[in-house]
Amino acid sequence: LFATSPGGGSTKDENGNPKFDKNKVSFDSVLNALVSIVSDAVTIVVVAIREGLPLAVTLTLAYSMKRMMADKAMVRKLPACETMGSVTTICTDKTGTLTLNQMQVTKFWIGEEEVRNKSNTINNGLVELLHQGVGLNTTASVYKSSSSSEPEFSGSPTEKAILSWAVKELGMDAEAQKRHWEILHVEAFNSDKKRSGIMTRSKEDKHMINVHWKGAAEMILGMCSHYCNTDGIPKELDAEKRTRAEQIIEGMAASSLRCIAFAYKQLGSENYSSNDDGQDDVHKLEDEKLTLLGLVGLKDPCRPGARKAVEACRDAGVAVKMITGDNIFTAKSIAFECGILRADDDDIDGAVVEGKTFRNYSEERRMEVVDRICVMARSSPFDKLLMVQCLKRKNHVVAVTGDGTNDAPALKEADVGLSMGIQGTEVAKESSDTVILDDNFASVSTVLLWGRCVYNNIQKFIQFQLTVNVAALVINFVAAVSSGKVPLTTVQLLWVNLIMDTLGALALATEKPTKDLAKKPPVGRTAPLITNVMWRNLLAQALFQVAVLLVLQFRGESIFGVNEKVKNTLIFNTFVLCQIFNEFNARRLEKKNVFEGIHKNRLFLGIIAATLILQVLMVEFMKRFADTERLDWGQWGFCLGIAFLSWPIGWGIKWLPVGDKPISKLFKF
């Protein structure tokens, strides 16, 4: 081996072949031979190990993250970019995501009568009770400056809408309510019970104590034994009247209205007392035998682009599930309006379920029905978490939207957590992977498309790099075994790694999403990263390159009539140019037209031009550094002609169909 290495022995045997003779080999020649062997080994290792892949993935993720900011999505965790491309199910909120979150009271019922002209038809005593129930039992506030005629409202959209309606339609003075009544006890809104309540006492008459409740209409109705009509007279809520009230609630819910009910109960001073220290002795608020004051229906319109975005997700093979706290009729109506449910869907009743029902299912039953569920109404944050866990156990890749603090567990549990930038709390944002800056579901579908683009770009780079790997490894290995010398030196292969790992990664990372990505099914959790299509493409190119380079290695000197150094330069130049031309093939894994849209990607074209210029400099002007020789025009033409052949080969091989079953399963890896 020393004798066949550069600087090895010069002794010949009787047949004229080099022979190792320890007496005639100097220490320097042995050392040079050892260095040459180690250098060749390092060269092969450098080719075999894809040390540039982490850089390529990071470049792709970072570039996409910057571009997603322009599409109203702020990525907090880089891996979420790629994971979003594998998502199979999106669990989304309704309010503010599918809808505009611009609540407005459009219906008002008292008893069995819909009230249209409020000021003239309602008893003053009943109006005063409604003022108390709205103005005191709220987390919103009203501010009216002396210079402004229009009051300003702050709080949640639902609270603001009810407060605005009471001020403008019922003539409520919120400040007057606070001056005349003191709040003794508050029961804050509870996502399980869907209600909030207060106990108030008149500041003029200490014996006048009222309990007011506000919340989901069907929940409040179940607490009532009486109701008021427009003349303010309480009447018994018998079975017939209760049924009629339920029909009114269902009718409003079917019109996509959120139904809120108000009820109260008057207490005597004997129901309330102070302890020995003079402090108020507060008991649990009375929640039985209440009197129903009225029902309001709030409209929250669907976002203009919500239906189109949902349809885009469905076309991409991604299931959209709506999880909301609204009642089942409102949820179903909104789902139809947004396209989550369609009239031609099978088993619509099975696609809609209440959170309590889903929660009470057995584990086996939940796993059986979770795929069919499209809408979950009257759900709690725990129900959302439970659904995410069930979907993940069925190998779904799940994305979840959330804006509240109590959504944090579901956002963390999901593969991709999407918090809302406007309505979202800081806890929700910290628990998420991506923040949707405009709270719009259309932006969620855009993030999905970018995720697929990232995944696709990584696959393009892997195909491109494996082609380089296979070709370089085979040619160097075969040459080293057969002749003891490698045609591609360490410096040349490091040069290839430098331009292909860095510039090649940047070129393929800058590809933007295409419409074709939106029509492909999701890859899911178990799909292989290197697909059969990629194997087909890279093996075809690698075999072509290996065949050409081996011919040049063993017959190049005789074909071109050149010395060994020029031959090695031809091999190096042909190899690099083949990679540059193959970079175009890598732009499209399946489509035959690899030049589609290339004029829009100026960065790609710029990188290709820069790589060509650097290669010319490497061959023609850096001979000592790269160990190359200058080539004439004919030799350059030959190298370019061979590289050009990679385009028709790439086009032709894509006519060859491939199966869907991964190669690893075919060979049982």
From TrEMBL:
Keywords: Acetylation, ATP-binding, Calcium, Calcium transport, Calmodulin-binding, Ion transport, Magnesium, Membrane, Metal-binding, Nucleotide-binding, Translocase, Transmembrane, Transmembrane helix, Transport
EC number in record: 7.2.2.10
GO cellular component term of the entry, any: plasma membrane
Subcellular location: Membrane
Pfam family, one: Cation_ATPase
Top-level division of the source organism's lineage: Eukaryota
Residue ranges of the TM segments: 41-64, 461-481, 493-510, 603-621, 633-656
UniProt entry tagged with the keyword Thylakoid: no
Name of this chain's protein: P-type Ca(2+) transporter
Family from the record: Belongs to the cation transport ATPase (P-type) (TC 3.A.3) family. Type IIB subfamily.
Native species: Colocasia esculenta (Wild taro)
Catalytic activity: Ca(2+)(in) + ATP + H2O = Ca(2+)(out) + ADP + phosphate + H(+)
Topology of the protein relative to the lipid bilayer: Multi-pass membrane protein
Enzyme class label: translocase
Domain Cation-transporting P-type ATPase C-terminal: 486-656
Function: This magnesium-dependent enzyme catalyzes the hydrolysis of ATP coupled with the translocation of calcium from the cytosol out of the cell or into organelles.
Keyword match Signal: no
UniProt GO molecular function: ATP binding; ATP hydrolysis activity; calmodulin binding; metal ion binding; P-type calcium transporter activity
